[in-house]
Design a protein that fits this description.
alpha/beta; Rossmann fold; GMP Synthetase, Chain A, domain 3; 2 domains; 6-stranded mixed β-sheet; 4-stranded mixed β-sheet; 10 strands; binds guanosine-5'-triphosphate; binds magnesium ion
């Protein structure tokens, strides 16, 4: 039995990054927007693998996460960011700050909006931030599948926003895949010639155990209600690889004893449901058998404490 740090998704031939052919393009595309507009769904679709968790709950994404797409012509490194919103606690402040920092260091900015509702104050706030960076901005109207067919005022509200700043805009659906190729073509168009930044078969820069923690948090988001999803942080305590099974021990941190009670559920039923669903997801991730053991721990006010936030993996990434 050996305990391993799963390291990253980096293949064993690390370092063998091929030389890019003539005319190859590469660069970083930042994905920003309000919470819940579909940024992570979009990145997963484009790279063809689920590395970012998604849910109907706003503020799902907490960490800046890179997803890598390599085609014969280009390598695009997508930078998924937490939805930009008015922060209500230290955690929110750290997340929004990181999204803003990410905006400043990309080659192209993909500003995603939910086209099934009209442009609002939140979108205008982000537009103002986006207008201050030098990279080209593409306004992406997502959720086209959810638009009422007769209401042209929705598109118009975004056309006006794009016109105001001189941005191009495209409409698509990250859920159905409609017009995703057109989006990709436009993004590649904006990239400069460049090298492979990562080996061509790599899909993310994050270690596997980070994604494992996220897959557990996703089930908490999907299965619990109200304040519980937002009060939760996951720590992967140990990953033990045995010949036929990988054992994962993880702790779900919550802020209050009442939340611990909800997470455990009657006779342990909720924790069991979270564990079963998360285990299935982790098995898909590592393509192998997984034994998952979950613990729940109360850590009062962790979202308010910079020190505890850093311990749980949330800090300003200057
Ligand atoms: N109908 C429809 N739903 C979508 C589309 N894209 C995303 N969704 C749904 O919208 C919800 C939010 O998606 P996410 O990808 O988690 O959104 P996000 O922008 O990453 O959210 P945060 O991480 O909270 O900022 C999920 O329930 C998705 O399934 C789309 O094109 N059409
Ligand atoms: Mg997200």
């Amino acid at each position: 039995m050996s305990e391993i740090d799963h390291g990253s998704f980096l293949p064993t031939n690390i370092g063998l990054i091929p030389t890019a052919p003539e005319g190859f393009k590469s660069g970083f595309v930042g994905i920003v927007g309000r919470p819940n507009v579909g940024k992570s769904t979009l990145m997963n679709f484009l790279i063809g693998q689920k590395i970012a968790i998604t849910s109907p709950v706003a503020q799902t994404t907490r960490n800046r996460l890179r997803g890598i797409l390599t085609t014969p012509e280009a390598q695009i490194i997508f930078v998924d960011t937490p939805g930009i919103h008015k922060p209500q606690h230290q955690l929110g402040e750290v997340l929004v700050k990181n999204a803003q920092i990410a905006m400043q260091s990309v080659d192209v900015l993909l500003f995603v909006v939910d086209s099934s509702v009209a442009a609002g104050k939140g979108d205008r706030f982000i537009a103002e931030l986006a207008s201050q960076i030098s990279a080209p901005v593409v306004l992406g109207l997502n959720k086209s599948d959810q638009q009422p067919p007769t209401d042209e005022s929705l598109d118009r509200s975004y056309q006006e926003l794009a016109a105001e700043y001189g941005w191009e805009f495209l409409k698509f659906s990250a859920l159905t895949g409609d017009h995703m190729n057109a989006l990709l073509t436009r993004l590649v168009h904006h990239l400069e010639p460049g090298p492979y930044y990562y080996p061509p078969d790599l899909v993310t820069d994050q270690p596997e155990r980070f994604v494992m923690g996220e897959l557990i948090r996703e089930q908490v988001l999907l299965l619990t209600r109200e304040e519980v999803p937002h009060s939760t942080a996951i720590a992967i305590d140990r990953v033990i690889e045995e010949p036929t099974i990988t054992r994962v021990l993880a702790t779900i941190h919550v802020e209050r004893p009442s939340q611990k009670g909800i997470l455990i559920g009657k006779g342990g039923s909720m924790l069991k449901a979270i564990g079963t669903a998360a285990r299935e997801q982790i098995q898909k991730l590592i393509a192998g058998k997984v034994y998952l053991e979950l613990f729940v721990k109360v850590q009062p006010k962790w979202r308010q404490s910079r020190v505890q936030l850093a311990d749980l993996g949330y800090q300003v990434e200057e």
